[in-house]
Amino acid sequence: MTLEAYLAGWAGDDAGRGDVAKTVLAMCEAGRRIALVVGRGALEGDMAAAIGGNAGGDTQKALDVRTHEMTLEVLKDTPVARVGSEEAEDVVVFDEGRPLAVAMDPLDGSSNIETNVSIGTLFGVLPNIGEDTFLQPGSRQLAAGFIVYGPATALVLTVGAGTQVFMLDHGSNAFLQTHKDVKIPEKTKEFAINASNQRHWNEPMSAYIADCLAGDTGPREKNFNMRWVGSLVADVFRILVRGGVYLYPGDAREGYGQGRLRLVYECNPIAFVCEQAGGAATDGTTRVLDLIPEKLHQRAALIAGSAEEVERIARYYEQPARSSSSSPLFAKRGLFLA
Ligand SMILES: O=P(O)(O)OC[C@H]1O[C@](O)(COP(=O)(O)O)[C@@H](O)[C@@H]1O
Ligand SMILES: [Mg+2]
Ligand SMILES: [Mg+2]
């Protein structure tokens, strides 16, 4: 089934849904165009060249800016009133009278641009309620998803009716559905975290990872595997397909108290997609979709993926002192057993 047919079936005669469908299709048109550029790699010049800093304080690369502009170009003639982008300090306003808004990370995984590793685009569609549009919790998202520019260009989408996956068919230039109502396996033996930050982690995350690393000799009584692509979109795509948890906790580094990811245009789309696939997403203590953003570029910790594992990690945050394999209290008892 084409993406167009899927969205037409979902929207029916409902004008509001029709606007959401148009907006999603516009994001995917931007994705098609970006996929062409990404697919040419260094033939497009030095896309990883540093050309400034973005609102989050990260180095802005040539492809960050180019994808931001390419996406705005497509969105400007849609039902979208305003766009909140990682690559613009301020909200971009097209036309206040329109019903919708898009929050986006036009290029996710910027550190992977020149390495020929998967990168992507993240987006969430919200009702336009004026100046406070991007301060709405993620639970108000009408649609969300991401496109991965990898070996295949893949779209992961939810309009609140399950999570669907489409792949770009380069022959017909159509996104065709490949996975219907994806379900993230509830249990897992795989986690994704940047382990180079271990010394900076908080106690619950240190304890959880220590228990995983202890493998079949620890309280989990099973061996774990680790993967870290360094592109949120690629790590979460893997989790959707075979389970696992993505972890970017708050840590002790300056500016990383709430982790690295941005709530409005990274964590919220991922949380919506994961929940709709039977998974879960928390910042450790609060469901991500219930967090109330205070500003567009706010950061939030993210623990997302297989439901049972996310719930288990939340218990480490509730009772950190009881949880570590390295703690003298460590024993094969109740709360954290496999
Ligand atoms: O470099 P780190 O600290 O491992 O962080 C990697 C994470 O940061 C991100 O690259 C942040 O996204 P951007 O590339 O859009 O800034 C995620 O895609 C990725 O999971
Ligand atoms: Mg990103
Ligand atoms: Mg980005």
Automatic annotation (TrEMBL):
Q: Name one Pfam family in it.
A: FBPase
Q: How does it assemble?
A: Homotetramer.
Taxonomic lineage from the root: Bacteria, Pseudomonadati, Pseudomonadota, Alphaproteobacteria, Hyphomicrobiales
Which SUPFAM superfamilies is this protein grouped with? Answer: Carbohydrate phosphatase (SSF56655)
Q: Which UniProt keywords apply?
A: Carbohydrate metabolism, Cytoplasm, Hydrolase, Magnesium, Metal-binding
Q: Which cofactor does it need?
A: Mg(2+)
Q: Which reaction does it catalyse?
A: beta-D-fructose 1,6-bisphosphate + H2O = beta-D-fructose 6-phosphate + phosphate
Amino-acid positions noted as binding Mg(2+) 1 in the UniProt annotation, renumbered to this chain: 86, 105, 107
The identity of this protein, by name, is Fructose-1,6-bisphosphatase class 1
Coarse class of the protein's main subcellular location: cytoplasm
Occurrences of domain Fructose-1-6-bisphosphatase class 1 C-terminal (ranges): 184-317
Which residues are noted in the entry as substrate-binding?
Answer: 108-111, 194, 246-248
Does Lipoprotein show up as a keyword for this record? no
Give the coiled coil ranges: none
Q: What EC number(s) does this enzyme carry?
A: 3.1.3.11
Which species expresses this protein natively? Chenggangzhangella methanolivorans
Task: Report domain Fructose-1-6-bisphosphatase class I N-terminal positions.
Answer: 16-179
Q: Spell out the subcellular localization from the entry.
A: Cytoplasm
Q: Which PANTHER family does UniProt cross-reference here?
A: FRUCTOSE-1,6-BISPHOSPHATASE-RELATED (PTHR11556), SEDOHEPTULOSE-1,7-BISPHOSPHATASE, CHLOROPLASTIC (PTHR11556:SF35)
GO CC annotations on file:
cytosol
Keyword Zinc-finger among record annotations: no
